[in-house]
Amino acid sequence: MLAPLRDHKGNGPVVDESCTNITVRVPVGSKAVRVKVVVVSAACGAISEIVLDDGSAVAPTTGPANKPSTGPADKAAADRSALPNNLTKVENRYFDMLVSPIGGRIMSIQSKFLDAELTNVKGGSFTEADWSRSANKFFYRGKTFALESFKGEGFRGVEARGNAQGGGTDFLVIGKRYTIRDDSTALEVDYEFGNLPDAMSAQTYAMLLHTTLGINGRLCSYYFPTDDGIVEIERDKRPRELWLHHPARGWMAAVDDLGRGVALTMPFREVRCFFTWLAQDVVPTLEWRMIPVSIENGKSYKVPTEVITFKGLGKVSGAGGGLVGEISDGTVKVFNSTRGRVTAKAGVKNRRPKTASRLCAGPE
């Protein structure tokens, strides 16, 4: 047990009336001697400085007593530390992810490149539902998936696979392959929807894919490509929810006020509509409904998606193929996930550069 702090005469600390300054005189024969100070009272301020008799100052070691007040980013870290210990960790130079067997979802996506958590740690990202079946409302979110780690030269990840009776989708097998690469700031999420041979016939599934993506701890502006142009949801003018029924490209994106962001891409031919639930959540949902797909028994249908992390852009004008771009005031800025940086071309007039065309096209 630590003894109360007292000076060489047995006197305790002197505390001023505002309880903001604590003065204590401790004899220290040598600067090599350590003085450990523990502030027990939460009512008093944190230690800001220790001054030795010779007038030199020593910065206190950060600890529970002088830790900054908890903000949204600290809360995300606390939520991550509270996650169960049965999660599978996948890590490289760009990402530190935790994948849960419950729902086969990613519970935490820490971007080392952006120094940020990218998802709502309490709910995670990449869960599914068949929107054409009322009994299937996120049925698989609470079901157990089999997880298998894999790695190769320059890449690693986790594959999740699940099938469960009920929800009107007894024969549906959901596979998700999460891959991170040593040379890319993008996370690849390859979906595979299978129809078991026992179905004995083709089955039609209409999948809704659900994520929560953004910069956890900071409000973001969100971007959605539609037939009427790119819809921007400004970070300080967010509605409760938003349906977009006329998508024009296969991507959605978020950018914070520091130019950091994430873009979620998917094959445009699969997209029926976009949806986002903003409400009071710091990290809103990014969801999209697939068009109904008929799958023969014993066959499967693959849907590649990608989460591109980027920095250096003020807004998003297009995303796809590992690129995210901004077009504004005659300048095209393109972030390349394999290079990890932005290149810019100014003076663009009346035509769209090839890089921008590729951006707007999205993955094939």
Task: Describe this entry's structure for a reader.
- This protein has 364 residues and is mainly beta.
- The protein has two domains: 1-67, no CATH class; 73-361, Beta-galactosidase, Chain A, domain 5 (Distorted Sandwich).
- The protein is built from two helices and 28 strands.
- The chain has helices spanning 72-81, 354-361, and strands at 14-15, 22-23, 50-51, 57-58, 88-91, 95-99, 106-111, 116-117, 127-130, 146-152, 155-162, 172-181, 186-195, 203-205, 207-212, 220-226, 229-233, 241-244, 251-256, 260-265, 271-277, 285-290, 293-295, 300-311, 318-320, 323-328, 331-336, 341-345.
- The protein starts with 13 loop residues before the first strand and ends with a helix.
- The model is unreliable at 1-9, 14-24, 28-70 and 350-364 (pLDDT under 50).
In short:
The chain is mainly beta and 364 residues long. It folds into two domains: 1-67, no CATH class; 73-361, Beta-galactosidase, Chain A, domain 5.
* CATH architectural designation of the largest domain: Distorted Sandwich
User: Largest beta sheet, briefly?
Assistant: 9 strands, antiparallel
Give the N-to-C terminal Cα separation: 65 Å
Which oligomerization state do the chains in this entry correspond to? single chain
What do the pLDDT scores average to? Answer: 80
Quantity of strands, as a count: 28
Structural class: mainly beta
Number of helices: 2
